[in-house]
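To make this tangible, this section ends with a sequence with its structure tokens:
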Amino acid sequence: MSLPDDGPEHTAATGETVLRYHLCWKRRDLDGVMALYHPEIQYNDFFQNCTLGLSELRDYVRLSMPRQAGEALEHSDRIRVDGNTAFIQYQVTLRGGRGLVSFHASEAITVRGGLIWRVNEYASLVRQKADDSAGPSARPSVSRLGLSPRQLSFMADDLQDYFQRQQPYLDPELDLQRVATACGYSRNQMSYLLNQVLGQSFYRYVNQARLQHVLDALENTPQPVRIDELAFAAGFNSLSAFYRCFRQRTGLSPKAWIKQTESR
């Protein structure tokens, strides 16, 4: 005899299935995840504006899994189960934005006969600025690029790791195509990440890295020091761009900033 969709027995069975699903995903057990999908699975990704069936889900799931087993999502609530449906809410935080940038995501997972029959996944982009003001941004269109929030977080990590390890910003001729190629993405994907998700242009992102390089050098170089030499060595190709970037970041001129730090 089948269980009623809203009965306590069905709630317990749904919770067990969704917990197995979550653990397989966390352990990067792709076969285990796929085995829990119903043959007639309908996976609705409303962020990408797409619906996937069983034959399309393997690559989709593989690209969204953690890069290392045991990596955890930042859950904003416990898993809630009601009858044959479980509800999960979590947050994906991206590095490298202007302030805190994150996706707030939720999934409604419906179970039939011990298998996942339908998934409705939603996500909204939230940017929190330096003044702690926060609010949801308009949902950017990503269906053309096919990037999920998890994939965008991987891209942001790859971009920041590349800048930290290789310091490509030291080259005044650095361009977007070179960065995208080095990180393993297309130019359009990298442009979308920077402009639509992280909220800044490519050149602003690069100049912020150059400015941080100058600030680190100022803290570790005996005074007196030639500011213009540090700026050019960091990849700035004009002093006006450097001074503008410096004042936007610190609210001070380089000389005033040095004087302030020396008085601490």
